[in-house]
Write a structure and sequence with these properties.
Blueprint lengths: L4 E17 L4 E16 L2 E16 L5 E3 L8 H20 L7 H13 L6 H8 L3 H11 L5 H15 L7 H13 L4 H15 L2
Antiparallel strand pairs: 1-2, 2-3, 3-4
Helix pairs in contact: 1-2, 1-4, 1-5, 1-6, 2-5, 4-6, 5-6, 5-7, 6-7
């Protein structure tokens, strides 16, 4: 009897989600997949061997394949919430550089984040205040370039105005605002101008 054997790569789905497909030019469902070599008998995979190649992202619509780096590109849904998300992170950073118990600043922080279209309350604020300073900085820097400079300046100004509610900026608050401005990819001149406008508006 003739026995036919060989080897074949079989792809398995690791997870699914929605991404911005470079080929379709819009949000599409994807599968993240990993290939594995199989020993085949009569063309049927029977024995799994080693993994082969890197993980890939495959579009369910056009079936194009990319490296997992493509998942770093924001989807349309993510872009629509990005201003509110960045505002939320900015006000949290500046709040904890001052008096986090000051009611006026806490209430204003929750209010302006809600106005940006993000569901927010004092419990969410307290949860954000417990996050790592460095983690938030990394997240802001990664997301900032999706917004126009004017939008990023508005976010910094809102954070500065919250810091100014209880009086002139402390050294710690000013230092944090400069760091937030840098994470928002603003230049030193832009940061100085935004903080000056916030001071003039508050009278501090």
């Amino acid at each position: 009897m003739l026995i036919i054997f060989g080897f074949r790569v079989v792809y398995f789905t690791l997870d699914r989600g929605v991404f911005h497909c470079p080929n379709c030019g819009g949000d599409r469902e994807y599968r993240r997949r990993q290939g594995r070599n199989f020993f085949t008998l009569f063309f049927i995979p029977v024995l799994p061997l080693n993994k082969t190649g890197p993980e890939i992202v495959q579009c369910d619509t056009c079936h194009g394949r990319w490296t997992t780096g493509v998942l770093a590109v924001p989807t349309s849904a993510q872009l629509s919430t990005m201003p509110g998300t960045l505002l939320r992170m900015a006000v949290v950073q500046v709040l904890r550089s001052g008096d986090v118990t000051y009611p006026g600043a806490r209430e204003r922080a929750v209010e302006i984040v809600r106005q940006a279209g993000v569901g927010y309350d004092t419990a969410a604020l307290d949860a954000d205040l417990g996050r790592s300073f460095d983690d938030i900085r990394v997240e802001m820097a990664r997301s900032a370039d999706t917004l126009a400079p004017e939008a990023r300046e508005n976010i910094l100004r809102a954070a500065a105005e919250i810091a100014l509610l209880d009086g002139p900026l402390t050294f710690s608050e000013e230092e944090t605002l400069n760091a937030v401005g840098a994470d928002l990819a603003l230049t030193r001149v832009q940061i100085t101008g935004v903080l000056s406008l916030a001071r003039d508006s508050s009278g501090n």
